[in-house]
Amino acid sequence: MDVLGIGPLELITIFIIILIILGPNEMVKAGKSLGQFLRNIVTSEGWKATQRIWREIRYFPNKLMREAGPDIRQNELEAFNAEINKTKDALRAWITPPSSDWADRVPTQPGNKSIEVAETSKEASPSKS
User: Fold this and answer.
1) CA-to-CA distance for 44 and 21, rounded, in angstroms?
2) I need a labelling partner for 58 at 20 to 30 A (CA). Which of 16, 72, 120, 124 fits?
3) Which of 91, 92, 59, 64 is nearest to 76 (CA)?
4) At residue 94, does pLDDT exceed 80?
5) Is it the case that residue 97 has pLDDT exceeding 60?
């Protein structure tokens, strides 16, 4: 867990150094004044305006998409679907097993059981008439 790029061991070291420099009584006063300072910043109008601006910047792309209307989104969706279909076709070529006539072209070897099983299963399969 890092806080502003500072790990737990570094934070403990910083607190120990502050405790040694300020002492226990001054550390309480410093913490109280730091808390008041941060509260004043967070409740100020400038902080609220900054938060509003960052929120608008964060949601600006969504706002543009809503204002663009469904026509642009539909065109992008069609292009995306076409790309997906093209990718599916390319993948299908990789994962589709070869046709069944490939076993006829493979030379039979006496020690190769997989070919023998393929040949016997081909003979055992009933023919469709």
Assistant:
1) 31
2) 72
3) 64
4) no
5) yes
Among all chains, which residue has been given the structure tokens 């305006």?
49
Q: Give the number of other Cβ atoms within 10 Å of residue 18's Cβ.
A: 14
14, containing H or E segment = helix 8-42
What are the tens digits of pLDDT across the range 38-72? 999 999 999 999 999 999 999 888 888 777 766 66
The rounded Cα 115 to chain-centroid distance in angstroms is 44
Residues 26 and 22: their CA atoms lie apart, in Å, by 5
- The backbone torsions φ and ψ at residue 92, rounded to the nearest 5 degrees and listed phi first, read -60, -35
d(CA 105, CA 95): 21
DSSP string, 38-90: HHHHHTSHHHHHHHHHHHHHHHHHHHHHHHH-HHHHHHHHHHHHHHHHHHHHH
pLDDT(33) > 90: yes
